Amino acid sequence: MENFRKVRSEEAPAGGGAEGGGPGSGPFADLAPGAVHMRVKEGSKIRNLMAFATASMAQPATRAIVFSGCGR
Q1: What sign has the CA pseudo-torsion 8, 13, 19, 24?
Q2: Per the record, where are the segments of Gly residues compositional bias (predicted)?
């Protein structure tokens, strides 16, 4: 641990939460309130992503899922 140092710390603003599709929570400012934003990274497994997406769509409040990715 002596080779690591903390560069920056960010906290989500209280109220609303960063996940869940509120205004400004995803890559688009005009997302519907029922949209779920999923950030996909290089090591993500399709099996895990699809399980989470399927479970999210089973909830009546979820209207859409937005995937955004980074990496190769």
Answers
A1: negative
A2: 14-25
Strand positions, DSSP E, 6-63: 35-40
- Report how far apart, in Å, the C-alpha atoms of 37 and of each of 1, 5, 7, 61 are: 33, 30, 26, 14
pTM given for the model: 0.55
Q: What is the pLDDT of residues 16-39, one digit of tens each?
A: 444 444 444 556 777 778 888 888
**24 CA to centre of own chain:** 12
Q: Which two tokens stand for residue 37?
A: 């934003």
Closest C-alpha among 59, 55, 44, 58 to residue 67:
44
Q: Scanning the structure block, which residue is given the tokens 């995937």? A: 67
Q: Which residues on neighbouring strands pair with residue 69, listed in sequence order?
A: 40
H helices of 4-67, in order, are 46-58
Pick 9 or 31 by higher pLDDT: 31
